[in-house]
Amino acid sequence: MKQVLFSLVLAMAAIPALACDLYFKSEDVCLNVKWEVLPPARANGTMLLTFTDAKDAGRVVTPKYTPNVILWMTSMGHGSKPVTLNFVEEGKFRSTNVFFVMGGPWDIKFQLKDGNNVVEEVVQKIKI
């Protein structure tokens, strides 16, 4: 029984994405998104993005690749105006001008980019 429990603990430790809100496999980092201002439709919002080491969730880290945020309304096939992303401090970025042009279901695409190339993208769904 102890062997089974030990094996289960080891298996869970090998899956860092379970402990992350959003997980970027390419850099083995977690992303925590905190709304500072959750906007209604047609108003600006603000998010604080915090990246942490997936193996040590308390350790804030800056990703090697450049973070990017895109707002996309899949049901209508369009996005919104570009979101502004500014470096705050180690591993933390503030996303401003988060503007949903209309109410409904939206995808917030969090990306890590190398120049113009998207290295990895994770999506968070939200209804406005």
Automatic annotation (TrEMBL):
Residues 1-19 form the signal peptide. The keyword Signal applies. Keywords: Signal. It comes from the Bacteria. This is YtkA-like domain-containing protein. It comes from Peredibacter starrii. The lineage of its organism: Bacteria, Pseudomonadati, Bdellovibrionota, Bacteriovoracia, Bacteriovoracales.
